[in-house]
Amino acid sequence: MEVIKTYLETMFSALPQTAESFRFKNELLINMEEKYNEFKAAGKSENEAVGTVISEFGNIDEIAEALGGQTDLNQTRNKQANNKAEKIIGTVASVYWPLVVGAYLLWSFLGDSWDKSWLIWPVAGLIFGAIAGGLGAYFYSGNDKK
Amino acid sequence: MISSEAIRGYIDLIILCVLEGGESYGYEIGKSIREITGGEYIIKETTLYSAFTRMERGGLIESYPGSVTHGKPRTYYRMTKKGRGFRQEKLEEWEFTKKIISKFIAKLTESGEKSDGSH
């Protein structure tokens, strides 16, 4: 029976540790124990009984689906938000940076101020970081409809 | 042993049919399924218990605590009125599916090919 308990613990460790998954696990344990006892009573050896019970366990994904339908949905939403955000940010970047380079060169040549124009880089970097962060937050919250 | 794909749509029906015979609990329901099919379908624990969760959420069955095993109450299930209605629907769907598929088997037999031929 210890082997069965350990097996169950291992399977459930892959799932989020919620009260519901805990109840599920206990329910399954009670069931598997009764099965094990019946096999033993029917004459199966310890190994046979344990082996059969475990082989009839099934796939932990089914439990994950039944329990965390919400979680899977959130993960899909997050992935979608990330992809969208990445695409938009990529497009913005492909416009933004050439502009910055252009501005840097113009400023440096026309103003002959190479000693100062380097500032454009950290400033542009910070601004871009803010834009990207803002876009990311927008797409995340925009998709996070309840 | 039947493939999980083939049986997937009918797990709920199977469980409801077992409950038709009376209220029962997890282990016993699984055992009934094995016995009724003469061992040809041994339902997996995960399939059975995720079905219970799904069906209870859908209002097809309801659970209540029953007699105690090893200090923990067994969870018993019974079919609800909605469950009865769903069972009826599924039975009709099954009859209809059988009818349709049979037409194709008949057609194959007609044209002289083996009815269990595959391409």
Outline of this structure?
The complex is a heterodimer of chains A (146) and B (119). By secondary structure, chain A is mainly alpha-helical. Chain A has seven helices and no strands.
What is the percentage of strand-forming residues of chain A? under 5%
Low-confidence stretches of chain A: none
Specify Rg of chain B, calculated over alpha carbons: 18 Å
SSE sequence of chain A, one letter per element: HHHHHHH
- Number of discrete helical segments of chain A: 7
Largest inter-chain contact set = A-B, 21 and 18 residues
Helix content of chain B: 55-70%
The tally of strands of chain A reads 0
What structural category arises from helix and sheet content of chain B? alpha+beta
Number of domains of chain B: 1
Counting DSSP E segments of at least 2 residues, the number of strands of chain B comes to: 3
Helix content of chain A: over 70%
The CATH homologous superfamily of chain B is termed Winged helix-like DNA-binding domain superfamily/Winged helix DNA-binding domain
Number of helices of chain B: 5
Describe it for me?
By secondary structure, chain A is mainly alpha-helical. Helix content of chain A is 84%, strand content 0%. Chain A has helices at 2-12, 19-41, 46-55, 60-67, 69-111, 114-117, 120-143. The longest helix of chain A has 43 residues, at 69-111. The radius of gyration of chain A is 29 Å and the shape is rod-shaped. In chain B, strand 2 (61-69) and strand 3 (72-79) form a beta hairpin. The two termini of chain B are 23 Å apart. Helices cover 57% and strands 16% of the residues of chain B. Chain B has helices at 4-7, 11-20, 26-36, 45-57, 81-110; strands spanning 24-25, 61-69, 72-79. Chain B has 5 helices and 3 strands, in the order H-H-E-H-H-E-E-H. By secondary structure, chain B is α+β, with helices and mostly antiparallel strands. Chain B has a single domain (4-112), classed as Arc Repressor Mutant, subunit A (Orthogonal Bundle), CATH 1.10.10. The A-B interface holds A 24, 26-28, 30-35, 38, 56-60, 62-63, 65-67 and B 26-27, 30-31, 42, 44-47, 49-50, 53-54, 69-70, 72, 74-75.
